[in-house]
Amino acid sequence: MPSIDSQNQKTFTYSRSTLERAERALVCSPFNPCLFETMRSRRVALSEMTGSSGVQNGYTKHSISELVADNALVWLIQVGVLRREVDGQGITDSFRLTPLGRQIVEQFQRKSWRTPTWSDNLYNAVIRWFRLPF
Q: Helix (H, G, I), strand (E, B), or coil: what is residue 126?
């Protein structure tokens, strides 16, 4: 398997609105920053994020069901922050960061992970409900 030279990887340029939407989706999600930091280095299975193991791993603040986790993860995929992991037999139940997600998580490493405001939650919910492209 060829190795990847991370020093020579191209960085993508995203519009300000794309970065803001992605950041808002991350901070409004039911997941802790620890999950996304783990996803920088490896894939994370759905079973590691749900129930008591999600709390034990530090991925969630409280126990969440598979349905809640899956819905939140699908939204993060649609925003462009995550992708499903694929193996030789098809799609798995594991997730990884996209280049956009990686860029946002790296920005949060330099500053603290912010708490979403009520307007963040409202705006994210409206966009998520109507699946608006902004």
A: helix
